[in-house]
Amino acid sequence: MASIDTGGGDSGHKKGPGVKKAKKLSTRVDMTPMVDLGFLLITFFIFTATMSSPTTMDLNMPKETEKQDEQTEVKQSGALTIMLSKDDKVYFYEGELAPDGSNFKSGTFKTIRDEIIKKRKSVIASHAHDRSCEKIQQRAKEKDPKSDWQNACKDRDFVVVIKPTEDATYKNAVDILDEMTINAVKRFAVVKISDTEKDLVKATEGAGGIK
Amino acid sequence: MPSVKIPRKSTDTDMTPFVDIAFLILSFFIMATKFKPAEPVPVETPHSVSSDILKEENALLITIDGESRVFVNLSSPKGGSEKLLRVIEGINASRSLNLTPAQKQAFTKAEIIGVPFASLGGFLNLSPSEQKDFKAPGIPVMDSLNNEMVWWIAETKKAFAGEKLLYMIKGDNKSKYPAFEAVINALRRNEEFKYNLITSREEAPAGTELYRERNK
Question: A11 falls in which pLDDT band (50, 70, 90)?
């Protein structure tokens, strides 16, 4: 019995040979598992709390205007038209659509970023400085003098026209709008698809085996 | 030689303050976190690089679910049910639905509305638990002549006149684009051009313009 006894306080108060000693157990509890559990719960809460914070993407649509002089002019050479279709496929062409559809190409959401960057570079390369350009530069300079306002005007002619088909999903639309933010495309428009383009998309899909 | 006695100290430390701190932090986190309310319509939002956090304000939340059904949900953290009552009264008057006061009260408590005007009264007669199980057909938007979303937006706009009102669109990944377009058209017809699309956070891909801008 004495070997199990952990009590430290019995200094010889024996009351007699018949009296059994009350065992004195230590009141100290090992707290380590409790601490483990506590911190486990904390980490769990921290992770779940920060994971699900929804963000919002601002979308500003232009007012629809019939008046010719209020409409924004777009240079055909600087335009990149992107069509969204089913199975997350994208179709695009630069400038004006050739009558035979020869510049009509297809791609995916992974390749379209490179196309946007490529087009932007070529627009910047062929940029010609003129009077209206100075206004844009001036405005950029006033807004933030530290930014490279000299280059503010260079991608002026670059415009992306987004044309989602009926088969596109909402995710496609958000993805392509996101791509505009990612690549710092200042001018883009969401436009209804024309019948010629629709037919071309259908024909390409048919040839590619997408139903 | 007297041997030097090294006092033996116990190696176990008192863990109690440590436990106290741990549970203090734990209780703080439990109190501070707000649990996401169970969504009446399950929606998986697409990812975007946008980093603006959603604000709690007066908002008309338009939900498009995976089957391209459209729902509306009004939230007014400050105005309370009074504003919602004004919305339903406006709808009642403009669409002559002949709703009873009880049905109007039910509207202020309804979580989400996804029925055409014709069956709105019937939907509001259901109890909250029945509403949850109700398979809503969605608000008709695809017919441009009878886009009921236009009315919902118009009446909400009227009820919240002079106050800030956000138009939030929460679409599912799989929802079709035409449904989204129809919602946008309904907003446009009400002369509203600024919307908030609810998305999940995603980092800017490395090497892009935005990445350079953010890591300047």
Answer: very low
